[in-house]
Specification:
The chain is 80% helix and 0% strand. The protein is mostly helical and 113 residues long. Helix 1 crosses helix 3 and helix 3 runs antiparallel to helix 4. The radius of gyration is 15 Å and the shape is flat. The model has no long low-confidence stretch (mean pLDDT 94).
Length: 113
Amino acid sequence: MNLTTVYAVLVVAIVFEVLGTSAMQAAQHFTRVVPTTMMVVCYAVAFFFLSWSLRYVPVGIAYAIWSGLGIVLISVVGYFAFGQKLDFAAIAGLGLIISGVLVLNLFSKSTFH
């Protein structure tokens, strides 16, 4: 399997995880049916694609990318969609997460089986 396809599958997993987490915010403690259903479906799709990527990427590396980029993206969604504020420390921390994911992918020899 080529590198681009594997990372595309992992990106799909990340996008659906972010959608599921956004739906969880909108579900209001599972009291709203549509966002709750959307959350369950999105998480199922996210875990399906994450598990598929684990055929080619070690679990620690895949999870670091999935969770790191998921944190950054859900913070952006929270800022724009839910009006949640990000102070300088939060932005700096998110920058460090992005830096860590980049270092992992650009310099580590353990990103592929």
